[in-house]
Every structure is written in structure tokens, then in C-alpha cells.
From TrEMBL, chains A, B:
Residue span(s) of domain GST N-terminal: 2-79
The protein's Enzyme Commission number: 2.5.1.18
One Pfam family, short name: GST_N
Main EC class the enzyme belongs to: transferase
PROSITE patterns xrefs: GST_CTER, GST_NTER
Name of this chain's protein: glutathione transferase
Lineage top rank: taxon: Eukaryota
Length: 209, 209
């Protein structure tokens, strides 16, 4: 079996979905959680000066979604057919578009307020809530199309992991995040009940985001 | 062979890389170029209300990079090994991050100026040029690592197509875009000289972006 080393900060963020994939597959990996100081020291050695970076037998793979897709394909959580894999990839890209859209709110709440969005409550009303409504609409359509309880028929995928982990961060900031969307809250809980994921969630380091 | 139908606007944008993949593979497809009016009519029928959308035997795949990756995997332009495929995916995601970063300039030039960036020359100096310098640095590192003349050892991939087509749009707006980067300009031309791509570039509809 290859040797895996995942570099990220001591948070969930863009590294957690890959950690969850290792947990789902019962595959051991080195979970390297960098301090800011250690990150600055290693930054020039990473392909794009960023984390997460996955080292596979010494070869570095950068970019969070590319890492997770690589692991998901190996471990069987990338979709069951070629078309389903493309649909899962598209779901994840749609989630990343949502993530970019909510930055004025999300980054403001995390203490990195973008210029022009100093009023975080305004960002919540004008950015987060409309983006959530649109994105949850897409998720509802996907969930209605299949009976798996996940976003595609073939079962849990890396897209479910990115999306639900991000929901954990958002519901931590906005307790009413799921209000008016019981089917999305049920989906969120359903993913977290997936046995091997549930075990990982119970034992992982506890971080706010 | 499956029947392929690609919906996009009458422009290159996020649809062109997939058209180029069909050309590289000599695979016929229906190149549906929507007017704004026709797009508004079809919008509710698309999974995320957006184009590009690829229909494969009637099944819709949304999201530009997911579509291109699906075709690239089928046609042999996604990377030659599992690790190389992940690195190609990561290059493309890094390019999308660059694309998001330069929006204040790029969208302003295309007539969709984001709030706070009405001064397009300021956006050029403060956003586009630093983002280009950073991104071109990454591309140089990738090109130096292999002898293929493409971003990975295994030859041309969908990442080369997205990146060089976007360069065509940017150099159309900023004639000095490659100044100080002869190796990147050489790479840009090298991709465009790839025989089947060259033939497509000569015959495709001519649009500014």
C-alpha cells in the first residue's frame, strides 16, 4: 500500500474531506497538522505555496478537490459509473462556486473581512442567505432524483463530504442555517450517520472550522 | 458511440475546452450555441440553470471542468497515470482560482464591472498583473519539470486547453500579457501547434472571448 501524508492546518477547512475518505476506507495516513509558523517554513516546498497537499510515496498532489477525487477514485467514493463520476465532479464544482459566492460573509465571520463587507450582518442577509437558498434548491433536486439519501444514486461520495463538512462550519456560525429546509437537514444528518464517518466524527480533533 | 450535444453561448469562455477535446479526438458532437433569449428559455431545464451543459445520450452533465474531465478521460487527454490525473485536476483548479482572482479586471473589461472596481486600469495593475506573475510562476515550475512541452509529462491535457484558451482572451485584452515571460508564450504557441488543435483553431467560429 502506498504511504500517504496529508499536510493541512489544524482545522477542517479544505483538508477534512480527504481525512474523512481515509476514515471511510480504513486506510492509514499521516495527518500532519501545521502551525502557522511551520506552514510558513514549508510554504516554498509546496507546489502552489498552499495546503492541503497530499504526499503519495513522496510525490506531492496539491489542491483540495483534486486530492479528494484521487483518494475517492482509489477507495470507491467517486461515483459508480463514468457519467455519475462527472455528475459528482460537477456537484463539487457547484459547491466551490457557492463557497466563492459566500466569501464576503464566511471570511468576514472568520476574521478575514473582504473590503466593502465590514457589516457582517448585511453580508449574511444579502450574500449568504440568497446563496444558500439557491444552493439548497440544487441539492433538493439532486436528492429527489434518487433513493440513496446521498446526492447520487451510487451512495456516498467525496462531494457529500465537502458539502456536509462545510455545513458543519456554517451551522456553527448561523444556528438557523437549516430553517425552512428540513430535507437538507435530514440529508446532513444522514451523511453523518454513515457508520465509518460517524466513528471518525466522534474521534477527530475538535476544531471550529 | 454515444450521442453528444454541448450547450453553451456563442463564445469560447467555459465551453471551448470541451469543443477542443472533441476536435482532438475526432469525435462528432452537436455544438449548440445559444442566443441570450434561447438560453433564458432553456435555463430552467439545466441542472444548475447555467451552461455549459453536455448531454450524453440525453443525460445532462453540468459544470465546465467536470464536462471537460469526463471527455478527456474518455479520449485520453486527462493524464497518463492516476497520480498524473490528480496533478492535472489540481492544475485546472489552480487555474480556476486564478480566474476567480482576476474577475475584478476580466469581468470589468467584458462589461460586467464588479462593485468597487470601476477603474479598470487600477484593476489591471493591482489585480491582473500580480495574479499573472504568481500563476505564470507555477506554470514555469510545471514546464521545467518535464520535457513534453505541456504541463505534465504525458502530453497535452484538458488543463492545457482551459489555460491556453483563457490566455487567448487575456492577450486580446492586454497585448503585453506575455511580456517578460518568453517561456510561457512559447508554451502557449506550442499547445496551439498541436496538429488537430491547430486545425480546429483555423476553422472554429471567431469570437472575442
Amino acid at each position: 500500500m502506498p504511504s500517504y501524508k496529508l499536510y493541512y492546518f489544524d482545522g477542517r477547512g479544505f483538508g477534512e474531506a480527504s481525512r474523512q475518505l481515509f476514515a471511510l476506507a480504513d486506510v492509514p495516513f499521516e495527518d500532519v497538522r501545521l502551525t502557522r509558523e511551520k506552514f510558513m517554513e514549508l510554504k516554498p516546498t509546496f507546489p502552489y505555496g498552499q495546503v492541503p497537499v497530499l504526499e503519495v510515496d513522496g510525490v506531492q498532489i496539491p489542491q483540495s478537490v483534486a486530492i479528494a477525487r484521487f483518494l475517492a477514485k482509489k477507495f470507491g467514493f467517486a461515483g459508480k459509473t463514468e457519467v455519475e463520476q462527472a455528475i459528482v465532479d460537477g456537484i463539487c464544482d457547484q459547491w466551490k462556486d457557492f463557497y466563492v459566492e459566500i466569501k464576503p460573509y464566511f471570511y468576514g465571520k472568520l476574521g478575514y473581512c473582504p473590503p466593502g463587507w465590514e457589516d457582517v450582518e448585511k453580508a449574511k442577509t444579502e450574500v449568504l442567505i440568497p446563496a444558500r437558498d439557491k444552493f439548497f434548491g440544487f441539492l433538493k433536486n439532486l436528492l429527489n432524483k434518487n433513493k440513496s439519501g446521498f446526492l447520487v444514486e451510487g451512495g456516498v461520495t467525496y462531494a457529500d463530504l465537502f458539502i456536509t463538512d462545510n455545513m458543519t462550519s456554517l451551522v456553527g456560525l448561523v444556528p438557523e442555517y437549516f430553517e425552512g429546509y428540513p430535507e437538507i437537514e435530514a440529508y446532513y444528518k444522514h451523511v453523518q450517520e454513515f457508520p465509518k464517518l460517524k466513528a471518525w466524527l466522534a474521534k477527530r480533533p475538535n476544531t471550529p472550522s
